[in-house]
Design goal:
Length: 249
């Protein structure tokens, strides 16, 4: 009750109706850097600082789940220096932040395809998940080597395998069954999705999971994103009328 009141006063957010799960496409790092004559990698570096700020703000606003897209299945097509730079930043982030995330009771999970990743990154991911698996004060989900279509295809393959093995009948397949084969199986669907950087597309992010999410697009480049931007997005979400296909009386 106390937390709800504090939120109302500070940010204009209705503390009783905050989204449980926010997903973010952190776009605009490159353009932010170009505009300042800096390298794209510097933009991504500042993107990590924005992620830190946003995580802290999300916790202040009593959000429980934050999913951020750090590397897509398509990002391998970027120049090798940028790909290597992003992989290096990811290593650095986990090494530097894991202890603090754990101390703050944050459960860290990764979604996406794991097969194409360097072995050291894979073992860092497994280690971080193992260390934080019993934490439940906040859930940070990093989409790394993630593609929404890829997630669905892998889910369908697993189901097809079970049908082939005779443990499942085609008529047993339903939305619930597909959902629990996705890499987000343990996480509720996002209530809202924010995309920074001015583009108004979902771009192969959580295609299945965003079905009923409120979509918020902002011109702000990700490295500039801050607590006020998050508060504004949540206020915007709270103005929306979520009907899930039904009618409101
Ligand atoms: C899109 O901006 C952003 C990415 C492809 C990577 C996002 C990565 C970070 C925020 C830092 C790394 C995160 C972790 C957790 C280690 P863009 O490069 O496409 O920007 P542009 O559209 O302006 O070129």
């Amino acid at each position: 009750m106390k937390a709800v009141k504090v939120l109302d006063q500070i940010s204009g957010i209705d503390g009783a109706a905050v989204p449980k799960h926010i997903a973010i496409i952190m776009d605009g790092n490159g353009r932010w850097a170009n505009a300042r004559g800096l390298s794209r990698l510097e933009g991504h570096r500042q993107g990590i600082a924005a992620l830190r700020r946003t995580l802290e703000a999300a916790r202040t606003f009593n959000i429980r789940y934050l999913t951020v897209w750090a590397f897509s299945t398509e990002n391998w097509r970027r120049p090798l220096t940028e790909v290597n730079g992003l992989l290096a930043l990811f290593r650095h982030y986990i090494k530097k932040e894991l202890v603090e995330l754990h101390q703050n009771g944050i459960n860290l999970q990764f979604i996406g395809r794991r097969t194409d990743l360097p072995a050291d990154i894979l073992s860092m991911m497994n280690h971080a998940e193992q260390v934080t698996k019993d934490n439940s004060s906040f859930y940070l989900i990093i989409a790394f080597n993630y593609g929404g279509r890829d997630d669905i295809v892998r889910s369908v393959k697993r189901i097809a395998q079970q049908v082939q093995e005779g443990v499942l009948l085609p008529e047993d397949i339903n939305e619930e069954l597909l959902s629990i084969q996705l890499s987000t199986a343990s996480v509720p669907d996002p209530d809202m999705m924010i995309r920074t950087g001015g583009e108004t597309r979902i771009s192969n992010f959580l295609l299945w999971q965003l079905s009923y999410a409120e979509l918020i697009f902002t011109e702000t480049y990700w490295p500039d994103f801050n607590k006020d931007d998050l508060a504004y997005a949540i206020q915007e979400y709270q103005k929306r009328d979520r009907r899930y296909g039904a009618l409101n009386s």
